[in-house]
Amino acid sequence: MCVFDKERISYTTKVTETQSWNDIPTCKEEGLDVQYLMLRALFLPGKVTKEQQAFYVDLFEKVTKTPEYKDYMEKQALKPVFLKGEAMTKFLEEDDALNKSLMTEAGFVAK
Known about the structure:
Layout (H helix, E strand, L loop, with lengths): L49 H14 L3 H9 L9 H21 L6
């Protein structure tokens, strides 16, 4: 078993009698050159106003700071990252390029 990220999961609370999520090595540590992050995001329609966009960004940023959200993230071993604006756009562009490459290499893209 290994983590598909470049670093171990940060959660140190024990999830078994002896181990936490942080005890699971990365795939790279196990000798496998594998890295892949699963996108979990919320998107708004393209024609929302800047005010509507700001409302939801602010709302979800507040949600990510609640104990309930933090507990959910830890129980699911999800990476606690909140991206917006240019950082989110950059992530989406890189993720899209990676997925296209993976699907092409696997033969799933029509020629």
